[in-house]
Design a protein that fits this description.
single chain; 564 residues; alpha+beta; 6-stranded antiparallel beta sheet; 5-stranded mixed beta sheet; 13 strands
Length: 564
């Protein structure tokens, strides 16, 4: 039965369907990129932070200065009140010393503490029982406090309320005042917390030896400082917010030219510059590049760079086109003499009686001419692919091509162990059958030539999904994974040979690269087999990748499947 007449499905050996085979170790998890703030955000944050720190420093200095001023005024007022109380013999005496009819001091003796003598104000009040006793009451200041201690014991303690009435201190407050007064020397002050508020007190000693304690409230100082702090914080927050808004607008406007420069650079970076005729039409606007600012200098430098790159790309393109034309012309010209050499070799065998040495020479000449012809054909194919030539394409079952190539490989390389895994359902791609067959043959030939005898070569074909952000790692084609690109046919040629050295693995798809130094094998190669595989795969919208380590080398071919 001829090959053309056999049933494609019947010609396949029964192989279990493999639809969930892994193509190798899963790729390492991508390292999360560290998020960095933009220049605009950084500048705004720096500006706002600077203003906030300055507001904080100004507020702190203002608070300390005002607090020192208020407390200084309070201390001066307290000192004057204490001196008046000590000079008159009691806290209830007038501001100046009062002389009696006999010319003696108005303080008299400690009997003044009994309340028997009073001020003129007391007499005018008719001696009511409100406790407004001049001998025992504080001075005329609102909330002023006064106490008299004899031998460390409080004999009188009172304070004046907002109505001017003198109120007696409670027992606990009197005890607090006495405890604080015991530790104070004359002209020293201390703060004490009482039930009527926090006070600053100072002691003085009168002529009789009694200790006069005078106190003024700290409430006014604290309330003033609180109002000041609220004002400073509010003003600071408003200033910081206003600075943030204004700074953001100014920075945005200032950096807008730089953003345009970045956009041009980004568009150029996204262009495919590796091959083909590339036109770099994007340039930074002249109003930016000639502005004289830092962004303008960057834009001008970018324009010059793009001009140089565009010139270099044009030179490279012209050089590549010239090289392709030269290779194509040379290959065409070499076809005729090579064909003639092979013809004359056959004629010599048929017409001449050659010696054994002559027979060997003719055989050698014929083998070299065939090798040269194969090299010329490969060069012509690469030249056509580089030019973007598109041959006729039809729907082709990769399974049939893989089976044919694997059967041929089993015959030509029987010293290797060949394992074939092909699914029962067709794996159909749109392509040129002859070129796709050459891809498979080159991959199998590469595994045969560069691995020692006894190596196991696994040829595995399956359908799957092009890897995407959400593709499944098991290769299952039952449903479209989230983030996948499209259905593809995946051909894997895996061997358990010694592997490819890393310095060669990165260049295996470059032209005229030979891996004989890295992998054992006796057959000569031209170094064009894998470059042809890569060129044909890319011409069909696919890709070819290599995974190699000692004991496992895998070439993975991906081709888009025909949409059903």
């Amino acid at each position: 039965m001829t090959r053309a007449s056999r049933d494609p499905r019947a010609s396949r050996p029964h192989v279990p369907a493999r639809t969930a085979l892994s193509s190798g170790a899963s790729a390492p998890a991508a390292t999360p990129r560290r998020h960095r703030l933009s220049l605009r955000a950084t500048l705004v944050i720096l500006l706002v932070s600077t203003v906030a720190v300055l507001c904080l420093l100004v507020g702190a200095v203002t608070h300390v200065s005002v607090r020192g001023q208020l407390e200084g005024q309070l201390d001066a007022q307290l000192t004057r009140a204490a001196h008046r109380a000590g000079g008159t013999g009691g806290p209830g005496a007038p501001d100046g010393p009062t002389s009696g009819e006999d010319g003696s001091s108005g303080t008299g003796s400690t009997s003044g503490t009994t309340g028997t003598s009073g001020t003129g104000a007391d007499e005018a009040d008719g001696g009511d029982d409100s406790g407004d006793d001049g001998a025992t009451g504080p001075g005329g200041g609102e909330f002023e406090l006064a106490a008299i201690l004899v031998d460390g014991r409080v004999v009188s303690a009172a304070w004046r309320d907002t109505d001017g009435q003198v109120e007696q201190l409670g027992a606990s407050d009197s005890t607090e005042v006495a405890d604080v007064a015991k530790g104070l020397d004359s002209d020293e002050h201390a703060d004490v917390k009482l039930s009527i508020g926090q006070y600053r007190v100072m002691t003085a000693t009168d002529a009789s030896g009694a200790v006069i304690v005078t106190g003024l409230p700290l409430t006014q100082v604290h309330s003033t400082l609180t109002r000041l702090d609220i004002t400073l914080v509010t003003a600071g927050l408003l200033a910081t917010a206003l600075c943030g808004v204004a700074g953001s607008l100014i920075v945005r406007r200032t950096l807008r030219p730089l953003e345009e420069v970045s956009a041009v650079a980004g568009r150029v970076a996204d262009m495919p510059l590796s091959h083909g005729d590339v036109a770099l039409g994007d340039r930074v606007d002249e109003r930016i590049s000639h502005s004289g600012t830092e962004a303008g200098e960057v834009g001008r430098a970018l324009n010059l760079l793009l001009d140089n790159v565009e010139g270099a790309l044009e030179t490279r393109q012209h050089s590549e086109e010239s090289m392709r034309r030269f290779i194509a012309d040379a290959s065409h010209e070499l076809r005729t003499p090579l064909t003639a050499i092979r013809g004359y070799s056959e004629m010599l065998r048929m017409t001449e009686d050659l010696s054994d040495r002559g027979e060997q020479s003719v055989d050698r000449m014929d083998a070299q001419s065939r090798r040269m012809t194969s090299l010329v054909e490969d060069l012509l194919l690469l030249a056509r692919l580089d030019e973007g030539a598109r041959d006729e394409r039809t729907e082709t079952d990769l399974g049939e091509l893989v089976l044919d190539a694997a059967m041929d490989a089993r015959v030509t390389a029987s010293e290797h162990r060949w394992v074939l895994e092909v699914p029962e359902e067709p794996v159909t791609v749109l392509g040129n059958a002859r070129q796709l067959s050459q891809v498979i043959v080159n991959l199998l030939s590469n595994a045969r030539k560069h691995t020692p005898a006894g190596t196991t070569v696994t040829v595995r074909l399956r359908s799957g999904w092009e890897p995407g952000s959400g593709s499944r790692s098991d290769g299952s084609d039952s449903a479209a994974p989230s983030g996948s690109v499209g259905r593809v046919g995946i051909l894997e040629v895996i061997d358990d040979g010694p592997g490819i050295e890393p310095e060669i693995a990165g260049r295996v798809f470059e032209r005229f690269t030979r891996a004989d130094a890295a992998r054992s094998g006796g057959d000569g190669t031209t170094g064009l087999g894998l470059p042809i595989v890569k060129a044909i795969a890319e011409a069909h919208g696919g890709s070819i990748t290599l995974e190699s380590e000692p004991g496992r080398t895998a070439f993975i071919l991906r081709l888009p499947l025909v949409a059903r």
